[in-house]
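Re: the request from the purification team.
They wanted to know what the chain is likely to look like in 3D before they choose a buffer screen. I agreed to run a prediction and write the result into the notebook, where they can find it.
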Amino acid sequence: MSRSAGEATSARNAGRPVWRPQSDVQVWALRVPAASWTSLDLSALDQEERRRMDAFVRDVDRLRYGFAHTSLRTILSGLTGTAPDALRFVRASCPGCGGPHGRPVLTIPAPEFSLSYSRDMVLVAAASEPIGVDVEPTPEPEVVDELATILHPAERGEIEAAPPDSRPVAFARLWARKEAYLKGLGTGLGRDAAADDVRGDLPGWRLTDLPVGTGYAAALAVGSPVPRIVRVHRALLV
C-alpha cells in the first residue's frame, strides 16, 4: 500500500461514524504483491509491529508481514472511521487461563477481527461476533503423516480414508478449520488439537470453508448460533 493510498483511506474515513454491529461477516482475500518490502507504506505500523517485521531474516517474510498488517489496519480503519496509525491493539482475556493473551481486539468500539497469512495469501475477517480465520498451504505427505496423529480421532479417520494423493488436501482443510476455530476461541494451539471435531459446525460456532485458490485451504469460524452471510472481497476496499 503506497503512502497516497494510506492518506486516501484517512480522508475517506473523515467524519465517518464509529463501528456499529452488523449481521454480515466480511472477509478480505488478498494477494501479497510482487514487490520489495521497502516499497510498502509502513507508516501506520506501531513500534512493536516494526520490531517484529525487522526481526525477519528474509526480505520476502518482511514483505508478507508488512503487507498483512498494513492491510489489517487499512480494513479496520475503514470499518471504524479511525486513522490506521491511531488504532491500538490489546489482547482479550484467554478463556482457558484468564491471562491477557486471548484474541487481539481494539481499544475502541470495533468489530471482532482475525488475520491469517501464508506464502502470498492474506486473509482478514471482521464480524460482530468472535471470529477466526486461517489459510494453510497444501502440505507435503510427510507433514500429514506427522501432524495427523494429533487430530481428533474422527478427523484422523477422514484423512486415512482418503486416497493417498488426496490426503494432503484433506488434512489442510481440517487444519485450517481447526486453526480458525481456535483463533476464534482465543486459545490458539494452547488447546488440545484432539479436543474438537471440526469436520462440521461446533456448539455455538459456524465453520465455513473459504475458496481462495489452488494450493491453499482456508476456513472461517464465527461464534454465532445461526448462519451468517459471508461476503468475500478480493481487493483492499472498505
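For the purification team: Residues 147 and 171 are 9 Å apart (CA to CA).
Please add any questions underneath this entry.
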